[in-house]
Amino acid sequence: MTFEENGEIKARPQAPPDPFAHRPPQPKVEIEYKARKEALNTTPKDSSSPQTAKIEEESLPSATPKLPKSSEPKESRSTLPIPPDPPAPAPEPAPPAQDDKSPSRYHGNEEEKTIPVPTKIETREIACFECGDTHQANVRANSSQCRSCGRFISMENREIKDAISSCIQTRGDVHIYKKGIVHSAPIQCKNLIVEGDFTGDAECSGDLILRRNGKITGKVTCKRLFVEKRAKIEFINSVVMDECTIDGLVTGHLACRGLLALKKKATLTGNIKVGRLTVADGAKHTGQIQMGGF
Ligand SMILES: [Zn+2]
User: Fold this and answer.
1) Count of CB atoms within 10 A of residue 252's CB?
2) Span from the CA of 147 to the centroid of ligand 1 (angstroms)
3) Ligand 1 centre from 135 Cα, in Å?
4) How far is the CA of 241 from the centre of ligand 1 (A)?
5) Distance between Cα 127 and ligand 1 center (Å)
6) How many angstroms is it from 152 CA to the middle of ligand 1?
7) How far away, in angstroms, is 217 Cα from ligand 1 center?
């Protein structure tokens, strides 16, 4: 028992050291914190006086702006609960925005219902080169066949970039590029664009567009004739069209069933037979004019 009593007596002195065990870590942290402040200031080493410590704390943010940043994250750790507040309201408006988008997708579904409409086949009238009979053919088709005589009808678009001696017969478009040469070979097509050298016959169910100087010795028949700026064209044979627009230099006799328009840079030399005529300021014409009579 006496030993126990002695043990109790010994236990009493052991109790006080426990609180010291809890306290010592706090002063250590403070010491480290002060040591870091001293290292940041690198000014006076006398940290013993409390006045100098206060001055150091006040001078930290202003004198050394970069250094306090390293200490800021430690403070931000304690202020972590602040940032989660703003994100909370953000998700609230987000869901309604998605709801707004979702109805638009439903509208898209309605559009999809209207998509199947393109099942309609776009067609255009094709005339036979042999018998002249016309029929409807798919616009995207490369060829067709005459319903009357059974002749093959090409609908391909042709791009001419070099010399060609064979005739061209298609219901598609023909584009003669700058290096393209078509002399004696006649051309039958829908739209004909001439940027190269062309001298032969031309029969276009659509537009004939002339963009370059040249002498066309063949007969020309088209729906609409365009002679663009800087183009200098000489027609040796007859030229017949429904409409005509001239903004370049043209020499020849023209027969236009509809409107013949002379733009301000047009210079036309030759007799013309027109349904209607418009002459812009600056346009020039030399020759006889016959209105109507078709
Ligand atoms: Zn035919």
Assistant:
1) 20
2) 7
3) 10
4) 24
5) 8
6) 8
7) 28
Angle at 209 between CA 208 and CA 214, to 5 degrees: 105
Cα dist from 161 to 149, 180, 277, 285, whole Å: 33, 4, 36, 34
Whether the Cβ atoms of residue 197 and residue 183 lie closer than 8 Å to each other: yes
- For 81, other C-beta atoms within 10 Å of its C-beta total 7
234 Cα: distance to centroid of ligand 1 (angstroms): 34
pTM: 0.60
Ligand 1 centroid, distance to 131 Cα (angstroms) = 4
Distance from the alpha carbon of residue 238 to the mean position of ligand 1, in angstroms: 26
How far away, in angstroms, is 17 Cα from ligand 1 center?
A: 119
**170 CA from centroid of ligand 1 (Å):** 14
Work out the burial of residue 87: count CB atoms within 10 Å of its CB; fewer than 13 is exposed, 13-18 middle, 19 or more buried: exposed
> Which three-class secondary structure string do you get for 190-240?
CCEEECCEECCCEEECCEEEECCCEEECCCEEEEEEEECCCCEEEECCCEE
The sign of the CA dihedral 97, 103, 105, 108 is negative
Cα separation, 188 vs 166, in Å, equals 12
pLDDT digits (tens, 9 = 90+) for 89-142: 544 544 444 444 444 444 545 555 666 666 788 999 999 999 999 999 999 999
CA dist list (Å): 151 to 124, 143, 144, 154, 285: 17, 11, 8, 10, 44
pLDDT at 239 over 80: yes
